[in-house]
Write a structure and sequence with these properties.
By secondary structure, this protein is of the alpha/beta class. The chain is elongated, with a radius of gyration of 21 Å. It is built from twelve helices and eight strands. It has an eight-stranded mixed beta sheet, with helices on both faces. The chain binds guanosine-5'-diphosphate (GDP). The site of guanosine-5'-diphosphate (GDP) has 17 residues, from helix 6.
Length: 298
Amino acid sequence: WHEKLLGGFRRTSDRLVGNLAGLGGARLDEGTLDEIEEALIASDLGPETAGRVRHRLSEGTFERDMEELGIRLVVAEEVESVLAQVARPIEIDAFPRPQVILVIGVNGSGKTTTIAKLAHLFLEQDYAVMLAAGDTFRAAAIGQLKTWAERIGVPIVTGPEGGDAAGIVWDAVKQATAIGTDVLIVDTAGRLQNKRELMDELAKIRRVLGRLNPAAPHDVLLVLDATTGQNALSQIEVFKEVAGVTGLVMTKLDGTARGGVLVAAAERYALPIHAIGVGEQMGDLRPFDAREVSRIIA
Ligand code: GDP
């Protein structure tokens, strides 16, 4: 997976060094520092991180004729310091059980696959897991989640296409409580094009959950497709408003991802990043490790 992940990134500092190649060992004057800062922002690193890198490079603690290694190190250290603040695995600690994890995100972001990956992960940690097919707008979504549930070997509560998502969630919590399920993972519709309806539906799910367990949902995970770059940031904005996000999972970091967006998201929203998706199989979810990811990005 490490190779896969690495393959998905064109290192920010590679781009930077490429940009600087034309400067031919120029000193880090204001113009060069401007260029470095701009290149970092163009890599989606976020203005604050870019500003800190610039500041450190200008302080002259490194060789004045910047070597590739020096730049890489400074970028990696700054990236790691931002990411370390948000790297946090999902804890299963709700009492009474079940812990209810609501999974939200636009269609195509990798929501269904991420639910399957999380179910697989929790099962491996010996938790009893149940799924609820709360995305009733797409028959394909219900079918796809069902197939995953069978493959992983976890129970799933479904309803008819176009059915009431909150009703499915109600049934699922009742069943999960009855059989002693530790984690209930709830899929939801990702219809961002109809914000009002999405908001109403998520609010209704929350009301139903709250009646059965005032602490639920314990987690509201937003799934983001890293290949969408800056778009992922605007999705955080909208979903924070309509759903109250508690944490992020970034998918498709094995693809042609622009990993810098992780740093921008961390910098701007300070939401926990729980895990990253690095493939289409159920084992392809990695805990988010700030050091590992910063070394790959930078
Ligand atoms: P949903 O519409 O949000 O439920 O998205 P899906 O879970 O159906 O995923 C959409 C597509 O992205 C599918 O083809 C998945 O196999 C693929 N996918 C999901 N996560 C990843 C990932 O981490 N890496 C890669 N390469 N593909 C992924």
